[in-house]
Each structure stands twice: as C-alpha cells, then as structure tokens.
Write a structure and sequence with these properties.
By secondary structure, this protein is an alpha/beta fold. It has a domain of 150 residues. It is built from six helices and six strands; from the N terminus they run βαββαββαααβα. Helix 1 crosses helix 6.
Length: 232
C-alpha cells in the first residue's frame, strides 16, 4: 500500500504538461481508466481544433474502484510550439511551486502576475507539484521535462500497433526513446512509452500495464522529491 512521505501532505500533486494534441488530457483519463477498470472522462479531450482545449489549471483526483487515491494530476493549458519561449513556461514554473490557484484561466499573452488574485504568494507544501510529467508524441520531441510520457506508440510502430506487448522490444520505439533522451537530456529510465485510451469503449490489460508502469514510477519520483523538500 502506497503512503505519502509527509504528515502534512495528503495528496501528491503531479503537474502534467505538453504540447497541444500530444495526449495530455487523454493520459489523465487513461490513468483513471486503469485504476477504475472502466472508461472515464475526468479531463475533457479535444484533438480536432489544433488549439489547447484546456484553458484553466485543473486538478483531477485519481480514483480507484474503492475510492480516492492519494494522487492529484494537475492539467494545464497545452503549449503552442510557436510560443515555447513566451509566457506559458513561466506559468508552468509558478504552478510547480504552488503559486497558481486551481481553476486559474491562462492568458496566452502574458504570465500570471504576483499581484493577481490568482497568485498564491505563500503556498503550502501541499500546494506544490512534486513531479513534472511532460507528454510528447512518439514522433515529435520537444520540451524540458523531468519525466516524459511518450504517447501514440501504436501510431509510430506497426509492430506495436499489432501487439502492444512488444513496445519494449520494438527497435523503432527504442530509437525514438534514445533520440528523445539525447535531445532533451532525460535518461532512458525516465521515458515511458504508452498508448492512451482514445476511441475504445472498454479497458484493455495491455494498455493498462503501460499506463500503470509509468504512473508507478512517476509517483515514486514525486514521493522522493516530497521527502527531500520536507527535510530541507
């Protein structure tokens, strides 16, 4: 049974970032699907517009069949490639350290000001995110994450599309992971290939195994960081 490494923190917050259309909100839903054993729609998904459907900072509790689990996945506005050097990365940093109120509506033109009513000047330890998860498609490598979730592996490799169990034996997927590691500087053991649920009506064990394997490591990283933050 998992337990949080601090008495004042009941839920570990994990910030989920990524470019528009990479599968950020779908990953959040896929985690809940795997834990509940059925399809869910915690985070609203829209991949048709080419723009971020997520406009507000939104926290999603992770729930199992028997109730809430001690994790919160926080969804933020998708990054537009042309503004990666603009205001949004600043808001990501503020969100990591708990300075952004839940439901804050992101402004694409300018970052959150410390004078705004949505700015938390003195956040609690429980307000902070303890792991940054960056979502990328298997054929697009961008970002500065701590953990990478590589989505749409079934679209990147025909072998994996036919049999998801072969994701870690696929030469093509391994090449994508190595390229990602070299370009971003994240070690291979922090890159997790997954397939998000998209148009399925039932859960699938092979999909769940990859999702839960990734989420298990994310939670361990986050709990380690919480323990380090509490001791400093």
């Amino acid at each position: 049974m998992f337990s949080v490494n601090h008495p004042d923190v009941k839920h570990i917050k994990i910030l989920v970032a990524g470019q528009v259309g990479a599968g950020k909100s779908s990953f959040i839903n896929s985690v809940n699907n795997a834990f509940r054993g059925r399809m869910t729609s915690e985070a609203i998904v829209d991949q048709s517009s080419g723009k971020s459907f997520t406009k507000n900072l939104k926290s999603h509790r992770v729930r199992g069949a028997d109730g809430d689990l001690p994790f919160v996945l926080t969804d933020i506005m998708g990054l537009q490639p042309e503004v990666l050097e603009g205001s949004q990365p600043e808001d990501i940093i503020k969100a990591i350290y708990g300075h952004v109120k839940d439901e804050y509506k992101f402004n694409e033109e300018e970052p959150l000001s410390h004078t705004s009513e949505d700015y938390v000047s003195d956040p609690l330890l429980s307000d902070q995110a303890f792991c940054l998860v960056y979502i990328v498609e298997a054929n697009t490598i961008e970002g500065i994450p701590q953990v990478i979730i590589m989505t749409k592996v079934d679209e990147a490799c025909p072998l994996v599309k036919n049999d998801l169990k072969k994701v870690y034996t696929s030469k093509k997927i391994k090449e994508k992971m190595q390229l990602c590691s070299e370009m971003i500087g994240v070690p291979m053991n922090c890159i997790f290939p997954v397939k998000n649920y998209h148009d399925e009506i039932d859960t699938d064990d092979d999909v769940d195994v990859l999702i839960l394997k990734a989420f298990d490591q994310i939670v361990n990283f986050a709990n380690d960081r919480l323990m380090n933050a509490a001791s400093n």
